[in-house]
Write a structure and sequence with these properties.
2 helices; mainly alpha
């Protein structure tokens, strides 16, 4: 009978170890592992949120820098437009003050009819670029035959 008790004790020991292992695994699967996974997910979410906030801050700074550049270009364009408008007004005033004298006859007929102040205003205003008429023949130029 001692052998039978020994076999029963070994079977009970192995059965107890198996039940303990299965119970421990189930406990870990049900309680411990999900809690650890949840903690890891929260930690990863916090890290991703920090990276996202940094990226948003950088994008905002870039956007503000670009807007400042656009504002500077707009201010420069507005300033240049105002200067050109003032120059054109001066030119129109100079043209309106020009006397309507008929051209002189004789040797003096080759003189320039634009007064110096008008010429100076024209030089300050600048030269306009002629529009291109691509594909359209010039009416003043005879057509080739």
């Amino acid at each position: 009978m001692d052998g039978l008790k020994l076999v029963a004790a070994v079977i009970l020991l192995v059965a107890g170890a198996a039940i303990g292992w299965v119970g421990g695994t189930l406990y870990a699967d049900i309680f411990t592992v999900p809690a650890a996974q949840l903690a890891a997910q929260n930690e990863e979410r916090l890290a991703q949120d920090a990276k996202r906030r940094q990226a948003e801050a950088k994008a905002l700074a870039d956007r503000q820098a670009k807007q400042a550049e656009i504002d500077a270009i707009t201010a420069d364009y507005t300033r240049r437009t105002a200067e050109q408008s003032a120059q054109l007004a001066k030119l129109e005033q100079a043209l309106s003050e020009k006397p309507d004298d008929p051209p002189a006859t004789g040797g003096a007929s080759c003189r320039v009819l634009i007064p110096g102040r008008v010429s100076d205003q024209l030089n300050r205003t600048g030269r306009a670029v002629a529009p291109s008429h691509s594909g359209q023949p010039d009416a003043a130029v005879p057509r080739p035959r």
